[in-house]
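comment on this one:
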Amino acid sequence: MKPLNFLTILLLLLGGVTAHAQTALPEQHTRVLIILDCSHSMWDHWQSNAKIKVTQQVLLKFLDSVANQPNIEVALRVFGHLNKNSYGTRLEVPFEPGNNYKIQSKVKTLVPNGACTAATALSSSLNDFPPLPSNTAGDQRQARNIILIITDGMDDCDGNICDVARQVQMSGVIVQTFILGIGDKQDFQHSLDCAGKFIYVPSEELYTQTLYNIFRLSGEEARVVVNVNDETGHLLESTVPLAFYDSQTGVVKYSTLWSIDSRYEPDTMVVDPLVSYDITLFSRPETRLRRQQFKPDCINTLDINIEQGSLELHLDGKRTNYVVPQYQMLVYRHGSTQLVGTQLLGESLNYLAGSYNIVLLSTPPLSLEGVSVSPSSATDLSIPTPGMANVSKPKEISSGAVFSLRDGVMTHVCDLNPNKVNERLLLMPGEYILVIKPQKTIKYRNVRTKRFVIESGQTTSIGL
């Protein structure tokens, strides 16, 4: 029987590995850049020795254990070690196969001597991840790039670590940034969650365990079953788009069309366990879940519960001798200007239970406010059939405009076409005013107005 190595034994003790643990796909390559704080404060005593001495001991043992792990490469960048009062940083050991001895040798010789410059080191780190060489088939290999910052405090750093971290994440090069805080807890008064996943390490023992947990996660994947349940608690029997966004950057990571199969079971998604996700279900309006994290050693179940009903607008059914177009309608949340859905007249779509405002893009537009959609119910609204206005114009009429008239207030509806003698206008029922002007005149006394009424499903002739 092949003996277990130190990493496997430790992970078993920590409960991080099971007989059914999911591992990364063979072609997945993981690169971990360690950014090590060597500012002068690392000489301060912590636990059994100076912070730098404890860190050196932990890293040397840790690097021994991960040296032969397949598909994982490690590189080392250091800051605060160049000279006194220096804010410099340098990539001491780049990514390359078999560089473990180089990293260990550099770790042994590090001497804290300068000031803190974590923001600069993090900003420089993007250049530390060169493109991977193509595989034997000529395809570009992909890598999961991870940054691990080890520091005893960032309060005295130059630059804004939060702004720099967001730029790094938005580059798309880095999957996740971890920050290990060692030393006294009061040295981390300001939250570093904005810069990455911050983990405070209170002891030497947990120092080692935390490193192993991060490396374990870097090689695994998480499986997620999303259950979209309706108001009765049963799985939704329709297809809905679904997207997973990186909570830190807001960039989409995964997208799918959620649905159930013939056995009424949803599919299983495979996602990166290193990332915290904001999840959007594209219902109407959208349903959002914030900061969801998934474990790699089990099947994660995510329940999204929604209550929805259907909404449809149709004409009142009056027969006409003209064609009524299938108007588009805009749907807004009541009390909000945010558009949540568009559909055609006569079309039925689902919306979350609630109150909505509807604008039908007829001529003129028809507005309906406070339309209620109830769970498991169909809201079916009937609207008047538009009428037809036949406008006959003398040749001397060059321009004109149609206005609706309601409570003594005129609202512009449309302009007449000066190149047409006869026009057919499809208008919603109501009272209107036609304002016309003869050719070659600008005088007010030559402008004429004519009132007319449009009735539902009827044709009204207007002679000028």
